[in-house]
Amino acid sequence: MARSMAALAVLALCAAGGTRSARAQDQEPTVLMPEQSATKARELMRQAAEALGGAAYMNVHDATCSAKLSQFGHSGELNGYSKIMDYAILPDKDRTENIPKRNLITIVNGDKGWELDRGGVSDAATSTIAQFQEDQKKDLDNILRNRINEKDMIFRYSGTDMVDLRPVDWIELVDSDNRTIRIAFSQDTHFPVRKVVTTRDPNTRLKSEEVEYYSNYQPMGGVETPLQITRERNKIKVYQVFFDRCEYNTGLSPSLFTKESLDERWAKIGKKQKPLKSSSRNSDKTKD
């Protein structure tokens, strides 16, 4: 009896495999000329923008979000969680605060930035600003709203696939800095579900791959918002955020993204902070 059941299972698997192969062959895309491929890729991006809220999505000017942020070590191990508030004015102003204390704040405003911690207010590290600017180049929303219109951007349709057991369409973009950006859109909802960015170090020529996963979309203020975003770099998890809520176009003031705003905050809380030795400031940031 057991052998008969095993044989039936093998036959079922073979049949399923044949069905999957037939489906995969049916789904293989027709070879497209470069112009047709670019047109299809752009159309998928426009469909995604429409599914994410249409005019409401495209006209987002600022965002205020509360979230739980996972903290990972260099080897991808989970070190804990922190609660944050993030404020942004598109495309290049961002302010992140720990809550509820609001005594650790980082601001990036274009090519400038500042930090507030238990030692007071200081200029943000050059690497922090550079990472923010690089992230903006790869940001999914920035791509769908703005970078789709760049003259030097190359667009390609890459065909169909299965991602998380659901059918998707892949597109590929190559920008003037030779970043290759691949995006998978759900065929059911047209929402972006995955993004893969491939770059090469200009000095070592080593390739780096960064993958982002988007899930649990919920409508907020007319904008479909992924409440969970996970990022991996070279197969090591570096970032995971769980959003509680996001509000859009609340009229955030540009003054919120200035050094003066941090000076004002420090004037209120500075006397309550215990002075830290310079060597311990980074470790205490993690704890808070």
Q: Secondary structure elements and their pairing?
A:
Elements: H1 2-27, H2 34-51, H3 55-58, E1 62-72, E2 78-89, E3 93-98, E4 105-109, E5 112-117, E6 120-123, H4 126-138, H5 140-145, E7 154-163, E8 166-174, E9 180-186, E10 192-200, E11 207-220, E12 223-233, E13 236-248, H6 259-269, H7 281-287
Antiparallel strand pairs: 1-2, 1-13, 2-3, 3-4, 4-5, 5-6, 7-8, 8-9, 9-10, 10-11, 11-12, 12-13
Report on this model:
It contains seven helices and 13 strands. With 288 residues, it is α+β, with helices and mostly antiparallel strands. It has a 13-stranded antiparallel sheet, with helices on both faces. A hairpin with a 6-residue loop joins strand 3 and strand 4 (105-109). It starts with a helix and ends with a helix.
Structural class: alpha+beta
CATH class: Mainly Beta
Radius of gyration over all CA atoms, rounded: 23 Å
What would the CATH topology be? outer membrane lipoprotein receptor (LolB), chain A
